[in-house]
Amino acid sequence: MSLLQLSPAIQSQIAFVLTVISTILGLAVGYLALRGYWQSRNRPMLFIAVGFFLVFWTPVLLVIGPYLTPLVGSFVYGMLGEISRIIGLLSILYGLRMPYLQRKSE
Predict the structure, then answer these.
(1) How large is the C-alpha radius of gyration of the chain?
(2) H or E stretch including 89?
(3) Element (H, E) at 12
(4) CA-to-CA distance for 41 and 23, rounded, in angstroms?
(5) Which residues contact 50 (CB under 8 A, 6 or more apart)?
């Protein structure tokens, strides 16, 4: 076993820990964006917050994936994660672009 080769059990544990950290950080960023929306009532901030939640919800799907895969199949499971990520990124993009579009229309 070389230095960079790890046992499958350790690889699984590392992947799980990284997924949990990514999810917690993503949900924290989404929560801060949502708080920013609540304070300012700035509509673009709402799209950004929703986008962060959708993008970082995907790791949660990865954690519960082994339980979902037998129910919906691996293809549908993978599609749910990717669709969530795409919609989230589009929402963030729209939220960041909205102020520019509003200025341009004035």
Answers:
(1) 18
(2) helix 74-105
(3) helix 8-40
(4) 26
(5) 88, 91
Quick: pLDDT tens for 62-76: 667 777 677 777 777
Give 6-40 pLDDT, tens digit per residue.
788 888 888 888 878 888 888 888 889 899 899 99
pTM, two decimal places: 0.72
Round to whole Å and give the CA distance between 93 and 76: 25
User: Are 22 and 56 in contact, with CB atoms under 8 Å apart?
Assistant: yes
- Residues 61-84: b if buried by 16+ CB within 10 A, e if exposed: bbeebeebeeeeeeeebeebbeeb
Calculate the alpha carbon distances from 4 to 1, 16, 48, 64 in Å. Answer: 8, 18, 38, 27
* Residue that the structure tokens 């339980």 belong to: 67
